[in-house]
Specification:
The complex is a heterodimer. By secondary structure, chain A is an all-alpha fold. Chain A is built from eight helices and no strands. Helices cover 77% and strands 0% of the residues of chain A. Chain B is an alpha+beta fold. In chain B, helix 1 packs antiparallel against helix 2 and helix 5 packs antiparallel against helix 6. Chain B has a five-stranded mixed sheet with strand order 1-2-3-5-4. Classes of the chains: A mainly alpha, B alpha+beta. At the A-B interface, helix 4, helix 5 and helix 8 of A face helix 1, helix 2, helix 5 and helix 6 of B.
């Protein structure tokens, strides 16, 4: 069981959830609506906070997180189920990949182990900052360049089509 | 969402899931102090990165496939509409001789008033056909004819005024058809519960210097002021569950193309304004 400190929830988990949703939605060509993204992100973080308190093996919380994000996308953005799963998968996989790519660098430069980092509330939040900066920059770039996995000509009309057949 | 693309989605999700599982497993090992050399972590990172990229490529391909699938279905619908239009023209040509014979018969019998009424009705049908032929987009003309025929079947008087050929419209015909189709269907539904003589739907296509103005009106009941904005929201409907997407779709398409939708009631008229190509 891995307990998440409250400070980590506010300064790490909520921004991370906002990025997960924003990246997933942008790449799936869904219009960003902050008044829906922010409550969905807060709910997803709260879900992660409580799930981590459950006595479940390491890693299962991520899988529950995917389901939670997909359900929230389904509720807040009224997409179809495959689209909601893709949004959740895209966001979480990008976060996990960036975390994984930065992890060796952080361990190398700080000379500490993951356990040491996780046991210190301050280190845990501080060392999440580079990851959040990289993710925020990626998200900002995707929004600015309107980068989407859908082709620009079609994605909007497809989005409407999705709703029609939902 | 097309059912065809579902296995493609699944493939992409599996690939991304694979990357995620490797991530989690590696983090698990590191978390429990398994002494993994940094070199191995770098190799695992490369594998994860490769899998993630592969997942995104697969997802992109499946989305493109889905888009193409949608496009093919839309084209098939257009072809069907065009065939319908050709059938209508043939039917009218075929009927024309019969109409002439009928009018000739009435004139022979000296029934001038009946002949005048008969001609007014016949020319009304022909007017709709000739008005739609002014439009540059045959797909749109076909849709309007189809809806006019539907209105006739439902005993709804259908008025049409086309004063523009929509030649400088930037919107694709299938999008315009989705706007007009939804508005006309709603208008027809709104008058269906009225007595036959009160059922009236009117459509106008005009233009000014900057934009095209499309309006669809009906003789149905007033739309209350407090729900006039809500009816454009997805899922809001006065017609029961699983409804309420039509007007949301209309507004979405119109706004994407820099236009706007207005609603006035009574009489209920939806007015869509779309900018011309090269306009501001």
């Amino acid at each position: 069981m891995d307990q998440m400190p409250l400070l980590a929830l506010i300064f790490q988990s909520i921004p991370e959830s906002i990025i997960i949703l924003t990246l997933g939605l942008t790449l799936m060509g869904i219009e960003l609506k902050w008044q829906r993204i922010i409550p969905a992100a807060v709910l997803s973080s709260l879900c992660a906070y409580y799930v981590r308190e459950l006595p479940i093996p390491y890693g299962v919380h991520t899988l529950i997180g995917i389901i939670a994000v997909a359900v929230l996308v389904l509720i807040f953005f009224k997409t179809s189920i495959p689209v909601a799963i893709c949004v959740a998968m895209i966001g979480i996989v990008i976060v996990a990949t960036v975390e994984m790519l930065l992890c060796p660098l952080l361990l190398f430069f700080t000379g500490k182990t993951i356990t040491e980092i996780w046991e210190s509330k301050t280190l845990r939040i501080l060392l999440a900052i580079p990851e959040l900066i990289v993710l925020a920059l990626m998200t900002f770039w995707c929004i600015r360049k309107k980068f989407s996995l859908r082709s620009p000509h079609f994605y909007r009309s497809n989005r409407t089509k999705d709703r029609e057949s939902d | 969402m097309s059912t065809l693309s579902f296995p493609n989605y699944l493939m992409a999700v599996f690939s991304l899931g694979q990357a995620l599982l490797i991530c989690l497993f590696t983090q698990y090992l590191v978390y429990f102090n398994a002494s993994i050399p940094l070199g191995w972590i770098v190799i695992v990172d490369i594998v994860i990165f490769g899998n993630t990229v592969l997942g995104f490529i697969l997802l992109r391909k499946s989305l493109v496939l889905e888009e193409q699938d949608n496009l093919i279905r839309q084209q098939a619908k257009h072809i069907q509409d065009l065939e319908e239009m050709i059938r209508n023209i043939r039917a009218q040509r075929h009927d024309f001789i019969s109409h002439l014979q009928a009018v000739y018969g009435m004139l022979q019998l000296g029934k001038l008033e009946s002949a005048r009424e008969y001609l007014a009705e016949v020319t009304g049908d022909i007017r709709i056909l000739s008005q739609t032929l002014r439009l540059r987009q045959p797909e749109v003309a076909a849709l309007i004819q189809q809806k006019a025929a539907l209105a006739a079947n439902r005993n709804i008087s259908f008025g049409l005024l086309v004063e523009s050929d929509l030649g400088k419209l930037t919107m694709r015909p299938h999008n315009l058809n989705r706007i007009l189709g939804n508005l006309l269907d709603n208008a027809m539904e709104a008058v269906m519960f009225l007595a036959t003589r009160d059922r009236y739907v009117r459509m106008e296509i005009r233009e000014d210097e900057q934009s095209y103005i499309l309006s669809v009106g009906n003789s149905g009941p007033e739309i209350r002021e407090d729900i006039r904005e809500k009816i454009f929201e997805p899922g809001f409907s006065t017609k029961g569950e699983n409804r309420g997407l039509g007007l949301a779709i209309v507004r979405e398409i119109v706004e994407q193309h820099g236009g706007q939708v207005r609603l006035t009631s009574p009489p209920t008229i939806f007015t869509v304004t779309l900018p011309k190509a090269g306009g501001e």
